[in-house]
Design a protein that fits this description.
This protein has 290 residues and is α/β, with parallel strands linked by helices. It has twelve helices and eight strands. It has an eight-stranded mixed beta sheet, sandwiched between helices.
C-alpha cells in the first residue's frame, strides 16, 4: 500500500512524495534518491520496511518527477527546503537513507537539522571532489565528466543534459550505458528482467518533466559543498561496495573521514548498485539505534 501525493511548500515549490511501509508508524525514514532518480527508487525496500514497522517517505528532489524545478537551488539551501518539507508533513524527528548522488543534500540536512535527525545511512555515496584520491579507480567516463566539468562546467553541463535526454528517450541506451561503465556485479543485476522493469519505472518518472533536475544536480556536484562537517555529530553509517567504479570506494572512505560520528562498512564484491542486493542490511542498519 502506497500513499503517492504532491505537497505544496510555503515558498511555492511542489514536492512529489511517496509514503510506504507501515503507514501508521511514527518511526519515519526519509529516502534521498540517486543521480538520476525519483521517489519510486526505494520501493524494493518495502517488505523490509514492513518487517521493521517503519514508514519510508521518499521525495522527488527538485526538478525530478513531480517536484518543481528551482533554478536558485544550492546544496546549502536544500537544507532549508527540506526543513519546509518535514514541517509541512508535521514530522518532528526522523532518520534518513541516502543513496549515491543524494549525499551532498544529506550533508546539508544534517548540518541544519542536527537535533531532528536521529540517524543516517549512506549507500554508495558521492563525496566532495576536493580529494584527488577519490578519482582512483573511477571509470573513464565519470572521471572525464567530473574532471572536465571542474574546468569547463557550462560545456560539461550541456553534455550531461544530452546524455540524460538520450536516457529519457531510450531505456535500451540507458541500460547499455550502465552496463558499459559499471562493475561486473552491477551488470549481473542489470541483466534481470525485474530490474529492467524497475529501472524503466524509476527513470521514466524521473525524466517525465525534462532533465533540469539532472543538469542542476551535476552543476552542484562540481562546486564546493560548503558544509562544516565538524558540526555534524549525527550517527552516520556508510556502506560502499569495494568493486564500484561508478562512485568509487575511495569516495565512501573519504565521506567516512569527514563525518565525525560515522561507521564504515565495506561490502565485498559489490558495485554501485549494492543496495539492491543489500536492502535488508541497509534497512536493519537504519532501524538499529546502537
Amino acid at each position: 500500500m502506497y500513499n503517492d501525493k504532491i505537497i505544496s511548500l510555503k515558498n511555492g515549490l511542489e514536492i512529489g512524495v511517496l509514503e510506504f511501509g507501515d503507514l501508521n508508524s511514527n518511526d519515519i525514514v526519509f529516502y534521498l534518491h540517486g543521480f538520476p532518480g525519483c521517489r519510486f527508487e526505494p520501493l524494493f525496500t518495502e517488505r523490509f520496511a514492513l518487517k521493521n514497522r517503519i514508514k519510508i517517505i521518499s521525495i522527488d528532489r527538485l526538478g525530478y518527477g513531480n517536484s518543481s524545478y528551482y533554478k536558485d537551488e544550492t546544496i546549502l539551501n536544500f537544507g532549508d527546503i527540506f526543513t519546509n518539507i518535514v514541517d509541512t508533513l508535521q514530522i518532528k524527528t526522523f532518520k534518513v537513507i541516502d543513496v549515491s548522488g543524494g549525499s551532498p543534500y544529506l550533508a546539508s540536512i544534517l548540518q541544519l537539522l542536527k537535533k531532528r535527525v536521529k540517524k543516517a545511512v549512506v549507500v554508495s555515496g558521492l563525496s566532495p571532489l576536493d580529494n584527488e584520491d577519490i578519482f582512483r579507480n573511477l571509470n573513464i567516463i565519470n572521471k572525464f565528466f567530473l574532471k572536465f566539468g571542474q574546468k569547463f562546467p557550462k560545456i560539461t553541463s550541456l553534455m550531461v543534459s544530452f546524455v540524460a535526454k538520450t536516457w529519457k528517450m531510450s531505456t535500451k541506451f540507458m541500460l547499455l550505458w550502465l552496463k558499459t561503465f559499471m562493475s561486473k556485479s552491477d551488470r549481473n543485476l542489470l541483466n534481470t528482467k525485474d530490474n529492467h522493469k524497475y529501472l524503466k519505472k524509476v527513470y521514466n518518472e524521473a525524466f517525465k518533466n525534462g532533465v533540469n533536475g539532472v543538469k542542476k544536480d551535476f552543476e552542484l556536484y562540481l562546486k564546493p559543498w560548503n558544509i562544516n562537517f565538524d558540526e555534524i555529530m549525527t550517527p552516520v553509517e556508510i556502506f560502499h561496495g569495494n568493486d564500484d567504479p561508478y562512485v568509487t570506494f575511495q569516495m565512501g572512505e573519504y565521506l567516512n573521514s569527514l563525518y565525525k560520528n560515522s561507521k564504515f562498512h565495506e561490502i565485498d564484491g559489490e558495485g554501485h548498485l549494492a543496495i539492491l542486493n543489500n536492502a535488508k542490511l541497509v534497512v536493519d542498519a537504519i532501524c538499529n539505534d546502537n
